[in-house]
């Protein structure tokens, strides 16, 4: 017996967009049929010309619980995810207290998240000075890989790795599996913010700091055999280094974020520190080059880097304000707004925001509308206008640079493993296997 059929003339599958009926049995996709196929099912939903997308996979989310739950917590973050068409998130190891740098800290996080998750949640471990011995136990417990910084993280309890420490950690990761995801900025090329303006902040974090750090990571990955992933690429100067390494067979992938693809330095109003993030939003010309890198596959993933904070930390001074952008609920319409304007289709968006992140992190059963995968599905209206009111988002704190903008596209329903995300938590922990 089929439990659910969802029909759409715009079903986005890995093979392309087609008219189809998706059959769900239990929690899995049991079959794909012709749009009008007669199927006996307990429930039959016809979206007609609305799009049916795979649930998005966001591998870069700072939930912050436990310890900084007033910034964001599992309940609010996963509500926002579901409302934005995201059915799987991977939680970053920092900004929570304790940070996820050993197995005991992961257990504390699991206890804090229990019963609160509206979507499926997996976890990154942290690589910090002195914890190489803790990486294997974290991997055994189910983290998908490890996050490290090459420059100060912004919180004292998660310090960066030196070049020698990074090499040691990569050697360990090469042996135990998973991937090292790297915040790549060269601290020697970072300046002091100096003043309160956005121009001064931007000048303090030049694109060359990213390029230099990425070159070092690529070299060490080649020497150690570790698989690496470069986080939140904001500078197009990194693309040449990444493309050359990929052509040479180095196991390196890279992501960028909605804010780097949809916003530009020329648009940042003075004092509006909702736009502050590290690395920073750069020029319009740079943004165009990032889109080109995405189209060519040098950048493979678009994920949120959702890094929220209370409004009182977003003081109107770019030198002093917390650096992080809240956009977990808004990533899909934000990207669709710009992607459709540039001539890309929903299949491109699904690849960048679902299939590729799932592949990068090796999350099984996610990332595409295909038989055997979890029935993680999104009804999406690609032509609707979506005005953004920060106060109406599920994010715990109403701070976002998208406030007041009108985005294109609206998430209407999100199904997690065949069940609507409806305010009753039924997300699961995703603990990967070695």
From TrEMBL:
Enzyme class: hydrolase
Residue ranges of every copy of the Amidohydrolase-related domain listed in the record: 52-421
The protein's required cofactors: Zn(2+)
The protein's Enzyme Commission number: 3.5.2.5
Pfam families, per database record: Amidohydro_1
GO molecular function, one term: allantoinase activity
InterPro entries registered for this protein in UniProt: Allantoinase (IPR017593), Amidohydro-rel (IPR006680), DHOase/Allantoinase_Hydrolase (IPR050138), Metal-dep_hydrolase_composite (IPR011059), Metal_Hydrolase (IPR032466)
Signal peptide range in chain numbering: none
Residues passing through the membrane, by range: none
Keywords of this entry: Hydrolase, Metal-binding, Zinc
Record note on quaternary structure: Homotetramer.
Family: Belongs to the metallo-dependent hydrolases superfamily. Allantoinase family.
This protein's name: allantoinase
Source species: Nonomuraea helvata
């Amino acid at each position: 017996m089929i439990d659910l059929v969802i029909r759409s003339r715009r079903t986005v599958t890995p093979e392309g967009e087609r008219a189809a009926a998706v059959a769900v049995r239990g929690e899995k996709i049991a079959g794909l049929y012709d749009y009008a196929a007669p199927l006996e099912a307990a429930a039959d939903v016809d979206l007609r010309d609305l799009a049916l997308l795979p649930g998005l996979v966001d591998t870069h989310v700072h939930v912050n619980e436990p310890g900084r739950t007033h910034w964001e917590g599992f309940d609010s973050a996963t509500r926002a995810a579901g409302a934005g068409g995201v059915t799987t998130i991977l939680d970053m190891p920092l900004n929570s207290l304790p940070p996820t740098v050993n197995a005991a800290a992961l257990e504390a996080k699991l206890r804090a998240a229990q019963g609160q998750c509206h979507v499926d949640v997996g976890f990154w471990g942290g690589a910090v000075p002195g914890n190489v011995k803790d990486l294997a136990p974290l991997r055994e417990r189910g983290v998908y890989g490890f996050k490290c910084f090459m420059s100060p993280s912004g919180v004292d309890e998660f310090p960066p790795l030196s070049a020698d420490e990074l090499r040691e950690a990569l050697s360990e990761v090469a042996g135990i599996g998973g991937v090292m995801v790297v915040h790549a900025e060269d601290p020697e090329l970072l300046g002091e913010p100096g003043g309160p303006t956005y121009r001064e902040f931007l000048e303090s974090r030049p694109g060359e700091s990213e390029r230099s750090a990425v070159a070092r990571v690529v070299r060490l990955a080649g020497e150690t055999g570790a698989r690496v992933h470069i986080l939140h690429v904001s500078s197009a100067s990194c693309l040449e280094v990444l493309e050359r390494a990929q052509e040479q067979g180095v196991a390196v992938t890279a992501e960028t974020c909605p804010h780097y693809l949809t916003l530009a330095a020329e648009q940042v109003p003075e004092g509006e520190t909702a736009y502050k993030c590290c690395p920073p939003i750069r020029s319009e010309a740079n943004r165009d080059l990032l889109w080109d890198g995405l189209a060519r596959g040098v950048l493979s993933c678009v994920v949120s880097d959702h890094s929220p904070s209370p409004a009182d930390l977003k003081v109107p001074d770019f030198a002093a304000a917390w650096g992080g952008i809240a956009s977990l609920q808004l990533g899909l319409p934000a990207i669709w707004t710009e992607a459709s304007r540039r001539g890309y289709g929903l299949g491109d968006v699904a690849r960048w925001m679902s299939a590729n992140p799932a592949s990068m992190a090796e999350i099984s059963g996610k990332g595409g509308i295909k038989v055997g995968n979890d029935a993680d599905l999104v009804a999406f209206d690609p032509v609707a206008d979506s005005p953004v009111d920060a106060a109406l988002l599920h994010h715990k704190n109403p701070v976002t640079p998208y406030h007041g903008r009108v985005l294109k596209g609206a998430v209407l329903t999100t199904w997690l493993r065949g069940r609507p995300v409806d305010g009753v938590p039924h997300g699961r922990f995703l603990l990967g296997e070695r």
